[in-house]
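[Automated response] Your request has been received and processed.

Submitted sequence:
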Amino acid sequence: MLCQFVNRRNCYSHGSMVQIAENGHYDIMYGIIEPDSVYANFITKMTTEIFFLNNTAFTQPYYSVHPFTHLLRGEVNAFLKEFYNNVSALADREVYSFWEHLYLVSPHKTHEEGWFLMRCRWMLYMDYFGKLNILPGIPRAWLNDGCVISFENAASRFGRLSVNVESNISQGTVCASIKLVDNFGQIPNEIAIRIPHPQGQKAISVSRGVYCEESETIIISDFTGEADIVIKF
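Generated structure:
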């Protein structure tokens, strides 16, 4: 950046004087740094305070994978803040493809479209080393009474994943079914499914697994390929 000022005039690259593509979050994504470590704390706080606005990078924002870090750390609100700020800023209002930059340069970028779809995938499920996390980033409103979240045969490192979650919050229950077709000779060490109550209430019982109140997650350590869970509130 500094070399651009040799001729004594203001010059800018990528529409910003603050640009950082590899900001440490890839080290967390690839398992070099543990997401709950002091190093990850520093990386997360530093980038969100210095390099982001509304938790979104100043330029080419889809290059940053900090939303992945947020979900590993259970920071769902931070993930959703980036998700909606980013897509609302870069998705073209006419054709709904993605621009590369916030100042509308380089249209129809498949790179940005791809990373948007990856964020959708992380919202629904994340396969991280030996763990499979389901619905780690969905908004609470997606489990309002009568809502259904369902997807089938989604590709994961453990095989094809199918999930169906039905909300009967007016009756105090949410029912979830999980099926994993093991195509690769391995089953995850544990699976976790997050079931956030629309009003933030905590579950009083689950029919299977162990409920973590802090993360609103049911953890199943004896998963063999299928699971049906009833969560009562």
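Summary generated for your ticket: Helices lie at 25-29, 38-51, 66-72, 76-90, 110-124. Residues 146 and 184 are 35 Å apart (CA to CA).
If you did not submit this request, please reply to this message.
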